[in-house]
């Protein structure tokens, strides 16, 4: 029978290794058994799953290619290439920004409309600094994010810079029909490598595009 001590032992063992693949396997194992855990075990395992994912980013796991940020995402039980996290305080955001900035294997970032809600949108600048420093992320997806809000606009600006590697931008249901499409267009002027922009669910008149 699985006990909290078993989960903790597995985590502490993997934490000491430099083998990112081992962390990847532990992450996939934990998220695959998570739905079957009892309530108390789920409560115990949740922060450990979060810490394992943070370690995968920090140790530059080559199998972790996409990062989903927000309360609306859940861990994929079958795909270790995708990780989901929900930073909630200044320490979480600062730490996440630092390790994303140094990571060289992440290719895509997905963000939902819960970003920074717990902080009333006052996300530490260190988080956005990390996004700007990253040189491997080329796909950005914002889902139901109001680009008129400070946090969402700051993410867009972080990736839409002159030295950005961004090639694909997806803005899904972001309320761009009220003139905010021009905010996006102005930001994209610096994205010299952009190849594809998708704007589903925004009710934009094609004449504007």
Summarize the structure.
41% of the residues lie in helices and 12% in strands.
Output the keywords.
single chain; 7 helices; 12% strand; 6 strands; elongated; 209 residues; alpha/beta
What is the number of beta strands?
A: 6
Oligomer: single chain
Percent helix among the residues?
A: 40-55%
Secondary-structure element order, N to C: HHHEEHEHEHEHE
Rg over alpha carbons: 18 Å
Q: Label the overall shape.
A: elongated
Mean pLDDT, all residues: 87
C-alpha termini separation = 59 Å
The number of helices is 7
Beta strand %: 5-15%
Order of strands, main sheet, comes to 2-1-3-4-5-6
Unreliable stretches: none
Largest sheet: number of strands, sense, barrel closure: 6 strands, parallel
SSE arrangement:
Layout: H1 4-15, H2 20-33, H3 39-58, E1 66-69, E2 82-85, H4 90-102, E3 108-112, H5 125-133, E4 139-143, H6 150-159, E5 168-172, H7 181-188, E6 196-198
Parallel strand pairs: 1-2, 1-3, 3-4, 4-5, 5-6
Helix pairs in contact: 1-2, 1-3, 2-3, 4-5, 5-6
Would you mind describing this structure in some detail?
By secondary structure, the protein is α/β, with parallel strands linked by helices. 41% of the residues lie in helices and 12% in strands. It has helices at residues 4-15, 20-33, 39-58, 90-102, 125-133, 150-159, 181-188, and strands at residues 66-69, 82-85, 108-112, 139-143, 168-172, 196-198. The chain starts with a helix and ends in an 11-residue tail after the last strand.
């Amino acid at each position: 029978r699985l006990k909290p001590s078993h989960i903790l032992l597995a985590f502490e063992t993997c934490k000491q290794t430099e083998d990112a693949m081992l962390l990847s396997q532990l992450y996939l194992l934990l998220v695959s058994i998570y739905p079957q855990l009892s309530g108390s075990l789920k409560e115990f395992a949740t922060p450990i799953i979060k810490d394992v994912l943070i370690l995968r980013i920090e140790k530059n796991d080559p199998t972790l290619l996409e990062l989903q940020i927000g309360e609306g995402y859940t861990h994929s039980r079958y795909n270790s290439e995708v990780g989901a996290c929900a930073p909630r305080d200044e320490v979480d955001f600062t730490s996440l920004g630092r390790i994303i900035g140094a990571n060289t294997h992440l290719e895509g970032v997905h963000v939902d409309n819960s970003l920074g809600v717990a902080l009333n949108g006052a996300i530490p600048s260190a988080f956005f600094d990390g996004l700007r420093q990253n040189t491997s992320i080329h796909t950005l997806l914002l889902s139901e994010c109001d680009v008129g809000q400070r946090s969402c606009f700051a993410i867009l600006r972080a990736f839409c810079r002159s030295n950005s590697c961004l090639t694909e931008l997806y803005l899904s249901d972001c309320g761009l029909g009220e003139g905010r499409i021009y905010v996006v267009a102005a930001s994209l002027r610096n994205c010299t490598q952009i190849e594809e922009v998708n704007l589903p669910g925004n009710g934009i008149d094609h004449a504007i595009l």
